[in-house]
Specification:
This protein has 191 residues and is mostly helical. The longest helix is centred in the C-terminal third of the chain and has 30 residues. About 8% of the residues have low confidence. The chain contains ten helices and no strands. The termini are far apart. The chain is elongated, with a radius of gyration of 19 Å.
């Protein structure tokens, strides 16, 4: 079934054909994983989110309007699965004080573009995964998926001001971590 079109694969999935479901999974697994990595703590958690997302996708295949919208449709499922996954763990996940957010930035960020140009997507995802869960979720929802603070607050059961402060803190921590990585890489290579 690997040579079939996406439309054929989706029709097969809607009919419950295992071969079609396997083809769909293989075709879109890496895309779903790339989305999940921005929300998960590590690759293992991301794979769990992906598998849960595909189960939801197979159960809701009829909800997809057309085959051209498969990527946005699947992305929404992965993001919602991540939100559901962490909503269940909200009590421990959102036990981060908003007091740690500084009102002024400590470092000058005049060289952000130069810093980020030196980093691969893999480095950035690794640093993103090291953020505490609340910061990572808010950052990913706001920056990667374009949610407004009001929507994030509703989805995660927090206030809009908490969403904003988590984003500020996530940005601060990411910049600091990414800047230190480029400094280390710069010192190693002698550039």
């Amino acid at each position: 079934m690997a040579d079939n079109s996406v439309a054929d694969i989706i029709r097969g999935c809607r009919r419950g054909r295992e071969v079609a479901m396997q083809a769909f999974y293989e075709r879109f697994h890496s895309y779903a994983l790339s989305v999940a990595l921005a929300y998960a703590s590590d690759r293992e958690d991301a794979l769990e989110l992906v598998n849960d997302s595909f189960l939801k996708a197979f159960g809701n295949m009829n909800a997809m309007k057309n085959e051209e919208s498969v990527l946005p449709w699947l992305r929404k499922i992965v993001v919602n699965t991540a939100i559901d996954y962490y909503r269940k763990r909200r009590k421990q996940a959102f036990n981060v004080s908003t007091d740690v957010v500084e009102t002024t930035l400590e470092e000058p960020y005049l060289n952000d573009n130069a810093i980020f140009a030196q980093l691969s997507a893999e480095h950035i995802i690794t640093v993103l995964q090291q953020l505490p869960l609340p910061y990572r979720l808010v950052f990913s929802l706001y920056v990667l998926d374009g949610f407004a603070h009001r929507e994030i607050a509703e989805q995660l059961g927090i206030t809009e001001s908490t969403s904003r402060s988590h984003l500020t803190e996530a940005n601060r921590r990411l910049r600091r971590a990414l800047a230190s990585q480029t400094t280390i890489n710069h010192e190693r290579t002698g550039r």
